Automatic annotation (TrEMBL):
Fe cation binds at residues 168, 220, 284, 466. Pfam families: RPE65 (PF03055). Keywords: Dioxygenase, Iron, Metal-binding, Oxidoreductase. This is Dioxygenase. Its EC number is 1.13.11.-. GO terms for molecular function: carotenoid dioxygenase activity; metal ion binding. It comes from Nocardia uniformis. Coiled coil: none annotated. The keyword Metal-binding applies. GO terms for biological process: carotene catabolic process. The keyword Translocase does not apply.
Length: 482
């Protein structure tokens, strides 16, 4: 008999409690007024396990991908949510119970799952090449219908991507290219590698390259500028031998530096030069670009992480490992391999974002969800949102109240708008214990003044991961929606 109860995990209760349902809500109530020039679709992906996990150490990153799509037009909003029907989830639905161990751990996976890939497709959701792609970093993308969210199957780009993909590929809006990496583990003493891919605007792979990396780390993100790509290899180390001897599979190694591999965008492994920074946990950047020949990366970074244990099993707290907005500068002409770091804003932030149209090119503002008061912003919720002017240091902040959980804050350009702040900022907010969730819309120039509109979702949406907004005049939207 399959379990009918979720275990008492911080990531299965409170703001994270799974819903176990898919809905179509054709016309949501709205408090305030949605601007007429906001028209497009807001997608969000996140982890919602359909079946109670069987392992004791359930992790937030382990649940099944659930995609929410808010279609916004003429001041009205419809909502649809669907699980990504990966082969993993389809097999578990057939059996009516969870089969896979946490993170696909083979030691705790039911033999029935043998031969089926562990793909949760739960981390990001992007439009590219006319397709809606649900992404996780351990498996190929899964294509969904951009309107119905029906699962259409894994996208392998003609057999180029058969193992891993990034949850954070960069779409260069100047060229339409999607730049991607995948982490490749090797058996025995062979050096781990990453696979670097360039996919053109139409979704065709035009370059792929293997690059050896210093050690197997969690390669959650990487940087792309107009001419360069940077591969950050952080101290978040992955080791199967360590796991086999009872240690953590993924662990923070405080004695390792952060290594940053710089390569020309059309370069090869032979062109890579490694730079070095202090040990930093870094999974997300606002934006990265070139300035006076240097690479400038505005990132969310911290000394250590509460998401995973240290390699010796020690657990750090959220408070000890708050991420702040920092600027890393790499000088490709320097004679030393040192990366310069400065703190731009020291608030506790989670997911920094730019105006996506400026990715790879200079930008001025970083949007982020942030935490003023909660003890553990990951479990208890990020209670605020902030926009930082990285030139002046000015911050524009809105606090939703101490019991709020605010998701990633996304810049949504107005239809026809081209300037960096000419539009809106959107996030999902849930108040602890509330039976509803709000899709909150701000004027991007004025968060402090409060929301212009709150779109009422009549149920609690669990905290999730990444969101993207595509305006009706975005070439990626036109390509996908016809
Ligand atoms: Fe991420």
């Amino acid at each position: 008999m399959a379990s009918t109860r979720y275990r008492d995990s911080a990531f299965l209760t409170g703001h994270h409690r799974p819903n176990r349902m898919e809905v179509d809500a054709p016309d949501l109530f709205i408090e305030g007024e949605l601007p007429a020039d906001l028209a497009g679709v807001f997608y969000r992906n996140g982890a919602e396990p359909l079946y109670p996990p069987t392992d004791e150490d359930y992790h937030w990153f382990d649940g099944d991908g659930m995609v929410y799509a808010f279609f916004i037009e003429d001041g009205r909003v419809s909502l649809r949510n669907r699980w990504v029907r990966t082969d993993k989830l389809l097999l578990e639905m057939k059996e009516g119970r969870r089969l896979f161990g946490v993170h696909g751990n083979p030691m705790t996976t039911d033999p029935l799952a043998e031969g089926t890939r562990y793909n949760t497709a739960n981390t990001n959701i992007v439009l590219h090449g006319g397709k809606l792609l649900a992404l996780m970093e351990g498996a190929p993308p899964v294509e969904l219908d951009p309107r119905t969210l029906d699962t259409l199957g894994e996208e392998t780009y003609g057999g180029v991507v058969t193992t891993t993909f990034s949850a954070h590929p960069t779409v260069d809006h100047s060229t339409g290219e999607l730049i991607n990496i995948g982490s490749i583990a090797r058996r025995g003493d062979a050096a781990p590698e990453l696979r670097y891919d360039i996919i053109d605007f139409d979704g065709r792979p035009i370059a792929t390259e293997s690059v050896p990396v210093p050690h197997q780390s969690m390669l959650h993100t990487f940087f792309v500028t107009e001419h360069y790509v940077v591969f950050p290899v952080t101290p978040l180390d992955i080791s199967l031998p360590r796991a086999m001897s009872g240690g953590p599979l993924v662990g923070w190694d405080p004695d390792r530096p952060t290594k940053l591999g710089l390569m020309p965008r059309r370069g090869t492994a032979a062109d890579v030069r490694w730079f070095e920074a202090e040990p930093r946990h870094m999974m997300h950047q606002a934006n990265v670009w070139e300035s006076d020949g240097r690479i400038v990366a505005d990132v969310a970074a911290a000394e250590g992480t509460a998401l995973f244990p240290d390699i010796d099993g020690t657990r750090r707290t959220h408070r000890e490992t708050r991420q702040s907005l920092r600027r890393w500068t790499i000088d490709p002409t320097a004679t030393t391999d040192v990366v310069r770091e400065e703190i731009l804003n020291d608030r506790d932030i989670q997911f920094p974002r730019p105006d996506d149209r400026l990715m790879t090119r200079p930008s001025r503002y970083a949007f982020a969800n942030s935490n003023l008061h909660s003890v553990d912003g990951r479990a208890d919720g990020m209670d605020s949102v902030v926009r930082v002017d990285t030139r002046t240091g000015f911050e524009d902040l809105y606090h939703f109240g101490d019991s709020a959980a605010a998701g990633e804050l996304i810049f949504a350009p107005k239809v026809g708008g081209t300037d960096e702040l000419d539009g809106y900022a959107i996030t999902l907010v849930h108040q602890a214990g509330a039976a509803e969730t709000e899709l909150v819309v701000f004027d991007a120039k004025d968060l402090t003044g409060g929301p212009l509109a709150r779109v009422k979702v009549p149920f609690a949406i669990p905290s999730g991961f990444h969101c993207n907004y595509y305006s009706v005049d975005n070439p990626l939207y036109r390509q996908a929606m016809g």
